[in-house]
Design a protein that fits this description.
The structure holds three protein chains of three kinds. Chain A contains five helices and five strands, in the order ββαβββαααα. By secondary structure, chain A is an alpha+beta fold. Chain A folds into two domains: 76 residues, Ubiquitin-like (UB roll); 72 residues, [2Fe-2S]-binding domain (DNA polymerase, domain 1). A five-stranded mixed sheet of chain A has the order 2-1-5-3-4, sandwiched between helices. Chain A starts with a strand and ends with a helix. By secondary structure, chain B is α+β, with helices and mostly antiparallel strands. Among the domains of chain B are: 162 residues, Aldehyde Oxidoreductase, domain 4 (2-Layer Sandwich); 220 residues, Aldehyde oxidase/xanthine dehydrogenase, molybdopterin binding domain (Aldehyde Oxidoreductase, domain 4), CATH 3.30.365.10. In chain B, the strands form seven sheets. In chain B, strands 3-7-1-15-12-13-14 form a seven-stranded mixed sheet, with helices on both faces. Chain B has a seven-stranded mixed sheet with strand order 9-10-18-17-16-11-30, with helices on both faces. In chain B, α12 runs antiparallel to α13 and α18 packs across α19. Chain C folds into three domains: 47 residues, Uridine Diphospho-n-acetylenolpyruvylglucosamine Reductase, domain 2 (2-Layer Sandwich); 115 residues, Uridine Diphospho-n-acetylenolpyruvylglucosamine Reductase, domain 3, CATH 3.30.465.10; 111 residues, CO dehydrogenase flavoprotein, C-terminal domain (Enolase-like, domain 1), CATH 3.30.390.50. In chain C, α11 packs across α12. The N and C termini of chain C lie far apart (44 Å). Classes of the chains: A alpha+beta, B alpha+beta, C alpha+beta. Chains in contact: A-B, A-C, B-C. The interface between A and C is medium-sized, with 34 and 29 residues.
Chain lengths: 161, 754, 292
């Protein structure tokens, strides 16, 4: 077995460290080493978005990042989205708009949607569909997911006012 | 006793939209799916799969893999018991031979498709297992592959199986030729019928194999303990199917197997059978450690059950007044590598929605060198409907009749005897089509070049079948509801809502769960749009027993006759005395002990449902690409228990139907190797490929259910392909005889026209 | 996945030394969206993976009077987020915003797209159309090569074992020029190009005639194809449907596609013609300032 690397990183705002083999993806490290199983494996080749996380604020598929690359980075995962038990407006909107069925893609969609609203707080339907095209959902037909993102955007805009 | 049947306007909980109980864990990433189990000392299993579509296994040498550090167990076909041929029921897919199911989990003598499992390794981590798999040496003797139904049905086709089992589905069938069995059904006089026709249309269609495409892979974790008891954590539509199949394949007592159903990350029909489970079990036994196996995405596509490709011929005759007078269908469906595809459902769904006095259908279940097909949402229906509803459209235009009026003129109505011989159960078929005509989408102007509108109409039948549920009243008035059917999309909520309705209490008082196979009565899997309907009935019956028992407790407290106690909206009363459900629950333990009701039942099957869709498209005539401009789906669900979920089922079905219609297909090379086993090249719709889907819910009550529920999970996947084909014809004047209607085919059709 | 070692290279000297020491068994990691996938599915092996994202020259994205310089490890997302780039290099934005989804764009690099040398690469035709130059470092120094000379076969480049792509440069476009990249895919996102085409045009000051044009395309040959004859056919011609159609027919003739799960020969040839016409028209519109 090749040498394990000691990686120091920040996960959901807290400093963390772990050992991993170079061949382990960030997704594997999150799920199998750190037991943060919110990010899901759907394809393991960057085509479904179920493993979406933020690395230094940039939305990525964690299956296409090596665990060793997390050294010194800030990683944000679905586990950090609700703060002190208070759901993020997107999480509430996905619940209230039924923006999920089986739920396997939901963490990925939420991370992507959060990244979208941070960049573009009032996206129109076309912008939401474009941004979320890297996240596959097989259950909903996307309709209620799009509405959930719109609802969260409106509610977050309202809060700011 | 209170009567459980309620009028729609009296419903208090059913028809509302509460937030689902499992939702919070799903939006926080805490919900536990199949891959979210990590057991102590757990190994990871990986499979070696055949690169050949059809070959004899001459030898397998596992010695190098066994010698690799970190490898704990290696197995291949010879580690499986040799089991007898045994036909077993497979839910909506009919019957299957248990030995075929075993062989499909791991090949013994022959591999029958690209991706067929050949050997497996359990190791300390998945990477080691995967590297060890590459060290297993297999010698094959190649056989010619049969890659579609026409090749398999050709006179000179080699026989794939030595023993074939005709009758591998619900209807009477017969052995036909070496690689196919046949269902034949007919009424009237087909020749006389065509002789009376003023117009006859005869067309031929081909459709390709496509997959359910659930985002969660197949994943199972098995612990074979020192007492030979097996515990499985798995993502499945049916914990009992997994348990019983596993016991059959491994020849162990059912009593030794416990299956814990995890959250299901999408299934759509494809997760009701064993694949990895016996392999992981044998690895666990050999290594004396728990073993998790998870398929990679390419394995899911290559080696789990897709929906069949088909070759279809349709001939229909119509009279000038719009009466369909005769029809003759030839439906040849892939079964996959083993007999028992959804051909019967193709036959039923293609013949049920119109009254055709002279009707004949020949359905063929055909062995091909592709993975064994499995049900996928309305299995067998979309293929036939793609063909028939296009011919219907053509007939309507031949006689210059509005396509919806033409359908209304010919549709079957409640009580009409359908081709298989049973009458159509109560359902307002005309109301559905009238609502299509009355909808603004149908009459909205559609301007612009190369734009067109299409409609399609379909009928489907929902299952009842064996199911179980338990209600346990807690001393604080809350209720635990356990149901036997894994929840694929919100059925814990829709069942709790029905229980709340029946008990007269708030749905927030419920905690709903799906127990392991030791902890609740048997059920058929979550298939056939059945759970909210079928398990709903059992839940309502259990609620009635709970109320009856609680009435007795109230009578005991008040010292009155139990018959004098009535209950309404969660309040028990007798004379001037009354007590709430909650107050009575507080008294439960000192009035006779816990109140727990476990019910099983087998509600009626073949509950009809109908749907009709309208779609507008724009075709890029230079590239062949079809853009969907507007989509409206009408569906009769009997009663929408949770309208948000019903809309979600309709919208999800439509988008899956769009995927199969336009792009999704298995693409094999000449040697029978699958070339597009990834989510990059198996092209499921993204959010950018579809518009908002308007769902129009109709509610003609199902008399077999106390609240009129029919079930809603499948039917709307059927019409999109034919509605889109009809819209493409309306837009650019070409008929699409091949599905998927991918851009190169649309382009070729346009070029051939001009 | 097979075992490998991982090292972060801090500078070009270290990277080229590691490459040269490992004699072909080391791979450069930039975005990883191709490398990790092909290593995982066994199409590529490596004993050492060299992370190049800390090398300053590879992460530099600069725009000045001389032109554009894109470090080999600059991500697609960094490119489309750079609003200054859109004015002079809109086709670069076209490409960068079409590669994968947002997640992939956050990692994938234009340099990696070139070095992966896929026939369908969405950045390469654009780079060729713009006349981009690849700057390649080896132990002896740097060499400069036109992008169209990089790809040799599917997955194979003209870089030798000890060489690393440093950056891509594009000269500042002249006045009255414009470029456009289009690809055809069956879906609207997340697909490999069935065909892609990039066209760059320079017009006279009136916008009436072509002075020069460069056309390149992908998924129609073992490597992305520079169709010099198609672009040259436009030089001195009037801007009209006829001249554009003629160029598109030359491009169509130059295409030698195959039939596979992504498209058929016939369809691909037709798409070459269609996309060439469409990209030329859009490039002309951009040259005239009519379209962003």
């Amino acid at each position: 077995m090749s040498k394990r690397h000691h990686v120091t990183t920040t996960i959901n705002g807290e400093e963390s460290d772990f050992l991993c083999e170079p061949r382990q993806s960030l997704l594997e490290v999150l799920r199998d080493v750190l037991k943060l199983t919110g990010a899901k494996e759907g394809c393991n080749d960057g085509n479904c978005g179920a493993c979406s996380v933020l690395v230094d604020g940039v939305l990525v598929d964690s299956c296409c990042v090596l665990g060793v690359e997390a050294e010194g980075k800030q990683i944000d995962t679905i586990e950090g989205m609700a703060v002190n038990g208070e759901l993020h407006p997107l999480q509430k909107a996905f619940l209230e708009e039924t923006g999920m069925q089986c739920g396997i893609c939901t963490p990925g969609f939420l991370m992507s949607s959060k990244a979208l609203l941070e960049k573009n707080p009032q996206p129109d339907e076309a912008e939401i569909r474009h941004w979320l095209a890297g996240n596959l959902c097989r259950c909903t037909g996307y309709d209620k997911i799009i509405r959930a993102v719109q609802r969260a955007a409106n509610e977050m805009a309202g809060e700011k006012v | 006793m209170t009567t459980m049947d309620k009028k729609a306007e009296d419903l208090r909980v059913v028809g509302t939209r509460p937030v689902r109980p499992d939702g919070a864990d799903k939006v926080t990433g805490r919900a536990r799916f199949g891959d979210d189990i990590h057991l102590n000392n757990m190994l990871h299993g990986k499979m070696l799969r055949s690169p050949h579509a059809h070959a004899v296994i001459k030898s397998i040498d596992t010695s190098k893999a066994e010698a690799m550090p970190g490898v704990r167990a290696v197995i291949c076909g010879k580690d499986f018991p040799v089991i007898e041929h045994k036909m077993v029921a497979q839910g909506e897919a009919g019957l299957a031979d248990m030995r075929d199911i075993s062989d499909n989990c791991m090949a013994k003598d022959k591999v029958l498709y690209d991706g067929h499992a050949v050997a497996a390794v359990a190791a300390d981590n998945p990477h080691v297992a995967e590297e060890a798999v590459k060290l297993i040496e297999v010698e094959y003797e190649l056989l010619p592959p049969l890659m579609n139904v026409r090749a398999s049905m050709a006179d000179d086709a080699p026989q794939v199986h030595e023993h074939s089992f005709p009758g591998a589905f619900i209807a009477p069938t017969e052995a036909h030729i070496a690689n196919a069995s046949r269902i034949h059904m007919a009424n009237g006089d087909i020749e006389k019928g065509f002789a009376e026709a003023d117009h006859i249309v005869e067309r031929e269609f081909n459709t390709e194999t496509y997959h359910q495409g659930y985002i969660e892979s197949h994943i199972t974790t098995v612990d074979w303990d020192s007492n030979d008891n097996l515990t499985l954590w798995t993502s499945t539509q049916g914990q009992f199917e997994i348990r019983d199949n596993l016991a059959d394949v491994l020849e162990i007592p059912i009593g030794n197997v416990k299956v814990i159903p995890m959250e299901v990350g999408g299934a759509f029909g494809g997760k009701d059978r064993i694949y990895l489970d016996p392999v992981a079990a044998l690895l666990s036994k050999k290594a004396a450690q728990p073993v998790k196996m998870a398929m990679r995405r390419d394995e899911v596509i290559r080696a789990t059950g897709p929906s069949p490709g088909a070759h279809i011929k349709v001939k229909m005759g119509v009279k000038a007044d719009g009466t369909i007078i005769a029809a003759d269908y030839h439906l040849a469906y892939e079964a996959g590598a083993y007999a028992g595809g959804p051909i019967f459902l193709g036959v039923v769904s293609s013949t049920s929605r119109y009254n055709i006095p002279n009707l004949q259908v020949n359905g063929f279940d055909v062995i091909v060198n592709k993975p064994k097909t499995r049900p996928y949402r309305a299995p067998g229906a979309p293929q036939a409907l793609f063909a028939v509803e296009q011919v219907i459209d053509e007939l309507a235009s031949l006689i210059d009749m509005d396509p919806v009026d033409f359908r209304i003129k010919n549709l079957t109505r409640s009580g009409d005897i359908l081709l298989p011989g049973f009458p159509l159960a109560p359902l307002d078929t005309e109301a559905l089509l009238q609502s299509v005509k009355a909808h603004p989408h149908y009459t909205a102007p559609l301007e612009g070049e190369n734009r067109g509108r299409g409609v399609s109409y379909t009928m489907w039948f929902n299952l009842g079948a064996i199911t179980s549920a338990r209600l346990s009243v807690n001393p604080d008035g809350t209720v635990h509801m356990s149901s036997s059917n894994p929840d694929m999309s919100g059925t814990r909520m829709t069942l709790a809502m029905q229980a709340a309705e029946a008990l007269g209490i708030d749905v927030a008082e419920f905690s709903a769960n799906v127990p392991d196979s030791d902890s609740i009565g048997f059920a058929m899997p979550t298939v056939g749009s059945r759970t909210t309907y079928s398990t709903g009935i059992v839940v309502i019956e259990a609620a009635a027993e709970v109320l009856a028992e609680m009435s007795k407790r109230a009578a005991m407290i008040w010292e009155v006759e139990p018959d004098s106690v009535s209950v309404a909206d969660g309040v028990f009363s007798s004379g001037d005395k009354s007590i709430t459900f909650k107050e009575l629950a507080h008294r439960m333990l000192d009035t006779g002990g816990p109140i727990t009701v476990h019910k099983t039942g087998s509600p009626q099957s073949f509950i009809p449902a109908v749907a009709a869709h309208i779609v507008d498209v724009e075709v890029d005539v230079e590239t062949g690409k079809v853009e969907i401009l507007r989509y409206t789906a009408f569906q009769d669900v009997g009663k929408a228990v949770h309208p948000d979920y019903v809309e979600g089922q309709i919208q999800g079905s439509v988008v899956q139907g769009i995927g199969m219609a336009l792009n999704e297909e298995y693409f094999y090379d000449d040697e029978g190797r699958l070339k597009n086993a990834s989510l990059l090249d198996y092209r499921m719709p993204t959010s950018l490929d579809v518009p908002m889907i308007e769902a129009v819910i109709l509610e003609s009550p199902n008399p077999a259910h106390p609240y009129g529920v029919r079930g809603c999970g499948e039917i709307s996947i059927i019409p999109p392909a034919s509605a889109l084909a009809n819209a493409i014809h309306d837009a650019v004047g070409v008929r699409m005889d091949s599905m998927p209607m991918s851009p190169h085919k649309v382009c070729a059709a346009i070029n051939n026209k001009s | 996945m097979h075992e490998f070692d991982y090292v972060v290279a801090e500078n070009l000297t270290e990277a080229t030394k590691l490459l040269s020491d490992h004699k072909g068994s080391a791979r450069i990691l930039a975005g990883g969206t191709d490398l990790l996938v092909i290593m995982r599915n066994g199409r590529r092996q490596a004993k050492l993976v060299i992370d190049a994202k800390k090398i300053p020259e590879l992460t530099d994205l600069s725009l000045n009077d001389e032109g554009l310089s894109i470090g080999a490890a600059v991500t697609c997302r960094q490119i489309w987020e750079n609003t200054e780039l859109a004015g002079d290099y809109p086709a670069i934005i076209d490409s960068a915003s079409l590669i994968g989804g947002i997640q992939v764009q956050g990692r994938a690099t234009i340099g990696g797209n070139l070095c992966n040398a896929a026939p369908s690469a969405d950045a390469i035709p654009t780079l060729i159309a713009y006349g981009a130059i690849a700057h390649i470092q080896n132990s002896d120094g740097q060499r400069q090569v036109p992008v169209e000379e990089i790809c040799q076969a599917p997955g194979q480049t003209s870089l030798s074992e000890d060489e690393i792509l440093v950056k891509l440069t594009i000269a500042k476009p002249v006045a009255h020029s414009g470029a456009k990249f289009l690809r055809f895919i069956p879906r609207n996102e997340m697909d490999i190009a069935v065909v892609n085409v990039a066209s760059m045009v320079e017009l006279d000051s009136e916008g009436k005639s072509f002075l020069k044009a460069r056309i390149a395309m992908g998924s129609v040959a073992p490597t992305p194809l520079f169709v010099k004859a198609a672009g040259d056919s436009l030089a001195g011609k009037e801007v009209n449907d006829e001249s554009i159609k003629a160029a598109a027919l030359i491009a169509r003739e130059a295409a030698t596609p195959i039939t596979d799960m992504r498209g058929t020969i016939e369809h691909r040839k037709q798409l070459v013609e269609v996309l060439t016409v469409r990209t030329l028209n859009a490039a002309v519109a951009r040259a005239k300032g009519e379209q962003s």
